[in-house]
Design a protein that fits this description.
With 196 residues, the chain is an alpha+beta fold. The chain contains 1 helix and 12 strands, in the order H-E-E-E-E-E-E-E-E-E-E-E-E. The strands form 2 sheets. Strands 1, 2, 3, 4, 9, 10, 11 and 12 form an 8-stranded antiparallel beta sheet that branches. A 4-stranded antiparallel beta sheet has the order 7-6-5-8, with no helix packed on it.
C-alpha cells in the first residue's frame, strides 16, 4: 500500500513537469516575438533607420512635398557628412521641433560667402548644380562665415524659398543636431531609390 502511494506521487510530479515544459514551449516563441516587435518598433527607429515625410518644397527638385523617406541614423555615427550630402537635422538643436532636410554645402573649418547669388568657399567659386534657382538672398552669408569644428552650412535645393543656414532661424548646423542622412525615398513608388 505504501509503495502504491509513492508511485502515485511520482506520476503526479511527472505530470506537473510535463505541464511546465509545455507552458515553457508556448512562452518562448511569444517572448521571441515580443523582443522582435520591440526591436523593430523602438530600437530601429531610435538608432538605425527611421521613416519620415518631407514637408514643403524647399528641396525640389531632389525631394518633393509628401515624399516618404528613410533616414539612415548610423551614417554619421562613425564618420562625418560630406559636401552635397542630404541630411536630416533639428534646426538650432530644437529636438522638440520638426526635422529639416537640406544639403551640406560647406564643411568644418571652411569659410563660406555668397556674393551676387554665387557661393564661394575659401575664396573659390563653387561649381554645383543642385540648386534649382539662383540664390536671391544671401542672408547671413553675405559676409564671410568661418565654420567651427563639427559645424556645417546647409542650403535647400530650391534656393528661393528654402529656410536654411542663410537664416538665423536655422543657422549653422552642428553635428550634434544631425539626425542622419536622407538615404532612401520609399514613396512615391515610381521615384523609389537612393537620394542624391
Amino acid at each position: 500500500m505504501e509503495s502504491a502511494i509513492d508511485n502515485a506521487n511520482v506520476v503526479l510530479d511527472g505530470d506537473e513537469t510535463v505541464k511546465r515544459f509545455r507552458l515553457l514551449r508556448l512562452c518562448i516563441p511569444l517572448l521571441v516575438y515580443i523582443v522582435i516587435v520591440f526591436f523593430f518598433s523602438f530600437m530601429v527607429p531610435k538608432f538605425l533607420l527611421e521613416r519620415t515625410q518631407v514637408k514643403g518644397a524647399s528641396m525640389e527638385d531632389t525631394l518633393h512635398d509628401g515624399d516618404d523617406i528613410v533616414i539612415n541614423k548610423l551614417a554619421y555615427r562613425f564618420s562625418s557628412p560630406s559636401r552635397y550630402d542630404v541630411i536630416v537635422f533639428y534646426p538650432q538643436g530644437n529636438v522638440k521641433g520638426d526635422y529639416f532636410v537640406k544639403r551640406v554645402i560647406a564643411l568644418p573649418g571652411e569659410t563660406i560667402q555668397i556674393i551676387n547669388g554665387v557661393i564661394f568657399i575659401d575664396g573659390k567659386q563653387v561649381e554645383e548644380d543642385y540648386g534649382t534657382n539662383a540664390i536671391v538672398g544671401a542672408g547671413q552669408a553675405a559676409n564671410p562665415i568661418t565654420l567651427g569644428k563639427n559645424e556645417y552650412f546647409v542650403l535647400g535645393d530650391n534656393r528661393i524659398i528654402s529656410k536654411d543656414s542663410r537664416y538665423e532661424s536655422v543657422g549653422i548646423v552642428k553635428k550634434d543636431y544631425i539626425v542622419g542622412e536622407a538615404w532612401l525615398r520609399i514613396f512615391p513608388m515610381k521615384e523609389f531609390g537612393r537620394i542624391d
